[in-house]
């Protein structure tokens, strides 16, 4: 069994990793590190795990685990790896944004590979260190990459996306206070969301000539899980040509599917899927892309990367029952 | 007291009119017409009115009321007015979309004035027949008209807006079934919503030269009331110039205000207000506009129009306590 | 105009008082005291008030206002009145629980009258100092008092009630964090809620012999506003006898009504009403009682008390448009 | 592989069975019968299944399947079995309420065993025909049976429970219309819910002397999934004695656990678990019991029964990732 260590164990993405790993047939949780909760039962924080898991949080790491997941606030992965040493054989998957960009990808002689399987499955298989993509970044890239691969992104891209409240994490805040958030809607960081860097980097990896603008409006929805993204840009081909292109791009994808029907967010909640729908209006191609921000947008994709890195079937432990309601 | 008749009394907009009129100091409900509910207490349908109102629905109209509100499905106002005759002194306010467009505005020798007070307060004051604007149309126009007035809409306009479930009316439907809608998100009628006609018409009324595209994505949110719209377009001026322009345009507006702070939807729920916020990013001006779809987007604006038509203070009966939570 | 001062201006109940008072025809806000927000616009905290109110929070009180509302955490009214002196002519309405019980009602030679109008309208009219009832306490008492008045509470009373998240106030907490609260349900303080004291006191005021148990289960619902309470106890009479008794008890009530139809919570949201429904099953009488916890359960009832104390029509400024959706 | 047929394939419980069976390692869906949807893809109705399943609904049954799940409206299982013949080797699990009560349990020479594993695991293992318990019935029985087994139910039992909107099924209705249900709360069938029959029958199976009343108030919550039930009754022992008794009763249970901490509903959503918490107040024992109404309350328990009937490990295919948020 693959021995797994989790750092930052009290947050949402760590919780999701634990939920996935307790049912993963080839991996085993070795330790869950949380300084603030050390000594407490994991199920005292992730309370749905009662009956599933007796393990406690620890403040001691096992430096010899096979794989380490970093579930830390942005900037803290660098700090953690500077202060703690692991075996050279320990693979690392960082769920933060410390190593995602070209300029950040080498740290302590480790080279982090950007972990979007649909873009670079082969590189991931060979990687020892993975920078797991952001949630908005995953959802939006999967809507753009088939176009980029064909060098068809020649105009501005207009993106509007809504995320659930888990996207803002476990920290209490005014905009996650129930009386505020319930039945409310708002936006944040208009046109400047930090995931734009990853998105642009991946688009240029496929379409080096890309020089248009990506205009991205992120919104806060009054739901807990999921990202619903729509984007449009100029596209001269027919709708069928677009569908064929997307289906070809995703023909080997295990979790990304093109839907002929219009989508709604709950189709993917509590799954590792990304569903994509295409619509043509005059010369615009409208692409809808939906994911669960905590799974395909974070911990599910991290396990998918782990599976690839360890030579397992990509879907191992990720065939999840959707909630749907 | 102004005697009021309401046609189509069982729907949401009629319910809102009744809620407003029972506290209106200058108007009195004369009858509420609903063929399907005739003989039943109004409070058996609009159940919050228990204790406020003993009146019953009727299937007989009083043709001599001072003002008639038509709260019918689209297309049915024409049918109703064809089948029923009212006094020449009866003013009519149609909440449907039958008379909003230039080509539809004359019917039975009646000329309907488009009832957006911020655009044509003076014409409304003199009007006997009002076509009350649509909810998306109101929210979006109020974000565009100050720019149109200055002939500054010279590029495509990108609009994303989310509406609550009341926007789809009282008819039961799959996409308003609670287990589907709860914690969900979806879009409908991409780029082709029927309110585009009104919006374009009003923009051209102020900026005849307007020839760019309006790209409008309407979405279904998992809340009950309100519209949250964001739009952006090219704008060469500064943010302060934009603010000055919008504040000047709305200096006499009783319900439309420019906010220096970022907005969230619940600021306007259960009020007749439209709040607007401006943000500049590079050469793009981002305008946020929020309303309660049933009030400023429908019944509240209808009462506002009635007030203007009858020479009352525009805010009469519309100084509402916001719900906020 | 009655000059009003509000202490503790940043909380939910103060916000509701402000929303009510800006439209109250006989009262005027003189100052809103908040040490943490002094100098900031009131609309920067209560953000729906943009366009309604330009006033700022202050940290200075005007000791000569006609009426003072205390919107402080429990225990803090005593502290505040110990540290601040007001005119002898200043009436005080405390929305906290410092003066509600017989043992607490005299403070600094001021005698606080328990401000439930349905129970003691006449005493309130003559009072200078009011202890405004708790939200659960109001909702539950209004379901029990007609029985107590007839000395008919002879067995245990079983109460289950659900409150919205505003009931827990503005302080951020784990159980008001949106990802936790959304689509969730839980209980707290089983059988020991602090409002039991008030409830028992009022019941005994009408039925001195009352010696049975009141078993009260308070729950947290995943909505923002409102209390839905059901209670049952033995009752030997018929349903019609019960209805007659309740209707007689509330024949002069301005906001409490008996519904012949089954109730649902949103009938009272954003109103000052309490609706009551009766149902008989074998020898049990089931009483449903619903209120908006922030209005009839707090700030609305406080204004109702103010109206009575100043000789105004009880409903002044309280004829509110229900939200309903 | 166990060949499975599903009758009534378009409803919620059938959808959940399909979601469970596509990942079940020992069973395979042979056909999904739905007359109204015959010929359509299953993923056109259960739209989260896109990418998981290409099968279509059929209006033809395969009479030789190993097990048949009936997901029909109450009363329709009898009709269906009267009109259709299956192999003598076909086991049947009815998710409706046609065969749950002693008087109904023999039909066409088939004897249906009440399928609550915690009560009669051994009988289920030997059964060919199962009457799967109701959702409220499961949740409430699991809170009562340990007491009944010890003959400790000697007084009235007071139950309050809230269910999500999926409990009302896929049929559109006023009380499941989003603008009504959102942020609302209500009750239905006070003291007369149809599951009382099952509950009483099981209690008497363990405690034949039981003669007290079960007072059950069912409520509609504004969430989609789950049942949160609290009940209390007289109990003379200590809290620890109660805990020991419950833990002993459930020591072999695979999905029912006693929590030392207070519960909240989302701990069990999208799992097959029942969590139970005990609290003592004076002479009352308060028992909280929570389940997912569609899983432990319906389809999950049906699969659990299938596993037992076919000699599989009870948890096969039921180790589900909780949604939690």
TrEMBL record, chains A, B, C, D:
Pfam families: Semialdhyde_dh, Semialdhyde_dhC_1. Pathway: Amino-acid biosynthesis; L-arginine biosynthesis; N(2)-acetyl-L-ornithine from L-glutamate: step 3/4. Its EC number is 1.2.1.38. Residues 3-127 form the Semialdehyde dehydrogenase NAD-binding domain. The active site is at residue 135. It catalyses: N-acetyl-L-glutamate 5-semialdehyde + phosphate + NADP(+) = N-acetyl-L-glutamyl 5-phosphate + NADPH + H(+). Keywords: Amino-acid biosynthesis, Arginine biosynthesis, Cytoplasm, NADP, Oxidoreductase. It is an enzyme of class 1 (oxidoreductase). One of its GO terms (biological process) is L-arginine biosynthetic process. It comes from the Bacteria. GO terms for molecular function: N-acetyl-gamma-glutamyl-phosphate reductase activity; NAD binding; NADP+ binding. InterPro entries: AGPR (IPR050085), AGPR_AS (IPR023013), AGPR_dimerisation_dom (IPR058924), AGPR_type-1 (IPR000706), NAD(P)-bd_dom_sf (IPR036291), Semialdehyde_DH_NAD-bd (IPR000534). It is found in: Cytoplasm. One of its GO terms (cellular component) is cytoplasm. Its main location: cytoplasm. Belongs to the NAGSA dehydrogenase family. Type 1 subfamily. Catalyzes the NADPH-dependent reduction of N-acetyl-5-glutamyl phosphate to yield N-acetyl-L-glutamate 5-semialdehyde. This is N-acetyl-gamma-glutamyl-phosphate reductase. The gene is argC.
